[in-house]
From TrEMBL:
Organism of this sequence: Weissella halotolerans DSM 20190
Subunit structure and binding partners: Monomer.
Primary residence: cytoplasm
Family label: Belongs to the EPSP synthase family.
Stated name of the protein: 3-phosphoshikimate 1-carboxyvinyltransferase
Name of encoding gene: aroA
Gene3D superfamilies associated with the record: Enolpyruvate transferase domain (3.65.10.10)
GO cellular component: cytoplasm
Keyword Repressor: no
Catalyses which reaction(s): 3-phosphoshikimate + phosphoenolpyruvate = 5-O-(1-carboxyvinyl)-3-phosphoshikimate + phosphate
Length: 440
């Protein structure tokens, strides 16, 4: 029997009030560790996320002979760069847990090692498609065997050469793009990637910060190998995907007033802010600053009314991880919200179209599953699920956090199963949510 925990509960008219520093960006933390391992000299990473997913990247790099020191108090990590692309051999399979980003990126980064390697992960990660990554890597000269031609475990064959390619991405995926770029660093000749729509460009920005030659012209990103990667001092901004839960919570819970300092606002990640603006929200951005090529700002959010909209096309990739919490925001908006062109949600930590619909229905919400998205009725009152109904994160951190915010709307006692999944990206999330509940 899996135990369920009671989620934070609002007392009376409590809103979310105060200032919160959300943990460092997960996408950037993975990338900073990886590029730090490849670079010459030390890389000091400030505000590195130390949550399950990133800890798997760290342990993989350590297993491959990289020295990494962690100072948990200051959230500072020092990577002693190897200064080369070849890692130490390991016969033990590399365990990446639930970490999709680590898996995709490491497949690219490790596709030219002079000895074989095996990568595996947990049950959820082992159901997520990998052919989308291995197909371009094989075109570059790598040989990777996947279970049933698409899934972990993956066996990367020993390899001594890769060649640059021009590759049109069939799906909008920053993970696939990044895997190709990391392989491209070690290839003969230039690598070009054509994106159907823009996806998060952290790899490109960080590669440039480390000294690599990466350029973007329209939809085409081109990397010229051969530049020296040099260790850097990297300042990771707060993760907008973690801040998203507090942004939406503050908007929809009356009496809220939150300040979230130094949150990453890279324009390829801010789809959530644009969507909320279209829904009528006014979110304050101040103290804009760019470090290591990554902009950050302080966000100020007060509770306010929203209206339903249609979310489709290029907007989807810019808010891909925020769609579960946007679905919750939509339940409180005036009018219907339609999310389409979001079939990629089916390949995340869970099938997020199915699990979001299934779990929100437990609050009595009218929400309809579509093949590529969902339709959400607005202005709904969420009811605490009956005593015999327990919410389930399904092992998906973002689903768990969205459900914790949904539970606050009910004012009642709500139980969540597999709540520990939240630790994949935000171990102190529930404590932070509880600490902000205040009567003004
Ligand atoms: C990520 C890219 C996105 C996102 C994931 C993190 C990254 O996945 O959903 O949480 O760090 O590159 P896709 O690129 O596969 O869409």
């Amino acid at each position: 029997m899996m135990t369920a925990i009671a989620l934070p509960q609002r007392k009376g008219q409590q809103g979310l009030v105060g200032t919160l520093h959300v943990p460092g960006d997960k996408s950037l933390s993975h990338r900073a560790l990886m590029l730090g391992a490849l670079a010459v000299g030390d890389t000091v990473i400030d505000r590195c996320l130390l949550a399950d997913d990133v800890l798997h990247t760290r342990s993989a790099l350590t297993q491959l002979g990289t020295e990494i020191d962690v100072n948990p108090d200051q959230q500072t990590v020092v990577v002693h760069g190897r200064g080369r692309f070849t890692f130490a051999p390991t016969v033990k399979p590399i365990d990446l847990g639930n970490a999709g980003t680590a898996t995709r990126l490491l497949l690219g980064m490790l596709s030219r090692q002079p000895y074989p390697l095996t990568i595996h992960g947990d049950a959820s990660l082992s159901q997520r498609p990998l052919m989308r990554v291995c197909d371009p890597l094989q075109q570059m000269g790598a040989t990777i065997d996947l279970r049933a031609d698409n899934y972990l475990p993956a066996s990367i064959h020993a390899n001594s050469s890769l060649k640059g390619i021009t590759y049109q991405l069939p799906v909008a995926s920053a993970q696939v793009k990044s895997a190709i770029l990391l392989a491209g660093l070690q290839a003969q000749g230039a690598t070009s990637i054509i994106e159907p729509v823009p996806t998060r460009d952290h790899t490109e920005r960080l590669l440039r910060a480390f000294g690599a030659d990466v350029e973007r012209h329209g939809k085409v990103i081109t990397l010229q190998p051969g530049s020296l990667l040099e260790g850097q001092s990297i300042h990771i901004p707060g993760d907008l995907s973690s801040a998203a839960f507090f942004i939406v919570a503050a908007l929809i819970i009356p009496g809220s007033h939150l300040v979230l300092p130094a949150v990453g606002v890279n324009p390829t990640r801010t789809g959530l802010l644009t969507i909320l603006e279209q829904m009528g929200a006014k979110i304050g951005l101040s103290q804009l600053e760019t470090l290591n090529g990554e902009p950050r700002a302080s966000l100020t959010i007060k509770s306010q009314s929203l209206k339903g909209i249609t979310i489709a096309g290029a907007q989807v990739a810019l808010a891909i991880d925020e769609l579960p919490i946007i679905a919750l925001a939509a339940t409180q908006a005036k009018g219907e919200t339609i999310i389409r062109d979001a079939q990629e949600l089916r390949f995340k930590e869970t099938d997020r179209i199915k699990t979001v619909v299934q779990e929100l229905k437990k609050f009595g919400v009218h929400i309809e599953e579509k093949s590529d998205g969902m339709v959400i009725k607005g202005q709904q009152e969420l009811m605490a699920p009956p005593a015999d109904t327990v919410l389930d994160s399904h092992g998906d951190h973002r689903l768990g956090m969205m459900l914790a915010v949904a539970a606050l709307l009910t004012g009642g006692k709500v139980l969540l199963k597999q709540a520990e999944a939240i630790g994949i990206s935000y171990p102190t999330f529930l404590a932070d949510l509880q600490s902000l509940l205040k009567s003004q």
